[in-house]
């Protein structure tokens, strides 16, 4: 019985709902959101560097504005992997199979 069920459904690994990844559209929307937030912070840094005038704060803001594109791209391309390191194992001594149902005569 078990072999027939395995043949019908293939030999696929089970996916737990807690480790299922988000849909592609949700993932892309999240990446776009992170990128837009980073670029908004970069723009604020440039504007603040102009408004602050001279001094060390201006150079900190300019440096942040120059480094943020790299950080934004890395953050936008980061993927989230939901893994709880829980392996589903077939059968074994701890989980014996149920006996087959008797057939009526």
Protein architecture, described:
- The chain has helices at residues 2-9, 24-52, 56-77.
- With 105 residues, the protein is an all-alpha fold.
Q: Structural class per helix/strand content? A: mainly alpha
Question: H/E element string?
Answer: HHH
Query: Over all CA atoms, what is the radius of gyration?
Result: 27 Å
Shape type = rod-shaped
User: Which stretches are poorly predicted, pLDDT < 50 over at least 5 residues?
Assistant: 1-7
Quick one: biggest sheet?
A: none
**What is the helix tally?**
3
Q: How many β-strand stretches?
A: 0
Mean pLDDT: 75
Span of the ends, CA to CA? 19 Å
Helical amount: 55-70%
β-strand percent reads: under 5%
Summarize the structure.
By secondary structure, this protein is an all-alpha fold. It has helices spanning 2-9, 24-52, 56-77.
Topology, pairings included?
Blueprint: H1 2-9, H2 24-52, H3 56-77
Helix pairs in contact: 2-3
